[in-house]
Amino acid sequence: MAHIAIIGAGMAGLSALQHLADQGHEVTVFDKSRGSGGRMASKRVDNASWDMGAQFIRAHSAAFTAQLQQWQRYGWIGEWNITPWTASASGLNPSPDNVQRYVGMPRMTGLSRSLLEPAAAFIASTRIVSASHEASSGQWLLNSDNGNTFGPFDGLLINTPPQQAIPLLTANPKLAAQCEQVDMLPCWTLLLTLPEAISRAPDAVFVKQGAISWIARNSSKPGRDDQENGQENGKETWVIQADHHWSSQCIDAPHEQVQQALLSAFFATLQQPPQQPDTLWLHRWLYAIPANSLTLGALSDIGQHLVVCGDWCHSPSLEGAWLSGQQAARTLLTTLPTRAEESL
Known about the structure:
Number of domains: 2
Distance between the termini: 13 Å
Strand content: 25-35%
Strand order of the largest sheet: 7-6-15-16-19-14-20
Structural class: alpha+beta
Number of helices: 9
Helix content: 25-40%
CATH class of the largest domain: Alpha Beta
CATH topology of the largest domain: Polyamine Oxidase, Chain A, domain 2
């Protein structure tokens, strides 16, 4: 049994955790946030909650389709049956498709918590700032920003945005250089509750122009807390995600300015009279989605028992992150001693 460290509890890291734990290895997961999920994060304010990052999960590959079906049988995800709409220069129009969309239950972080269960330990609210590889033992030591040291570990898997992976790769300039090739785009996200329901608006809209790229009635998703008639606790909850390029242009704009721009665009897009929201929460995803994925699946150094993964290594989606984590875990396993070798 090997002792493995995973830095980052997003989908790729959790995917790798599942595979490594299935093979009998002891895995410790670190994350700078208080919980797991990465961009599968949810936000709760008072009695309202939202999926503030990834909005749904869909599959293109046979492997991920099978995985989603298994998670659905476990009750970890549920199907979100919606007819998406599009908003463009021609107006607001339905855009039906045959895509099966799933969401975590009872929110996106519910899935991440289930996937985290096989970890030997989850060390949250801990930012790992450096990783050192001991050439003599072939093991890794990790250092956090509060001065703690963790390890030794027989293998290291890094699942962070590439900009955050680079400082952890001082022992491997080649992998660091590959990370530098990837640009990540930001995304401003506005969460709100409304005092009056918007009954004639669609539940999900892909927006093709202006400041917004996506609108969702979060309370229309299955299994949400205290859900009744598409509302949570009597209030509709909405998620507004900004266009990535607009977010880049407004990356350092005052929060009040960004909030007002997105709120105005939200009501205009849905062709609704403005309301004063009961609750507003603005979040900036600094590394939301890769502008250019490496399409390598994962990065690795066999000799150092080191792998790096994430959607930016594969393709920009939760499926891409899951596939990247699977590949990273398989690669790492080839570098570790087998149980037969350990018994010698």
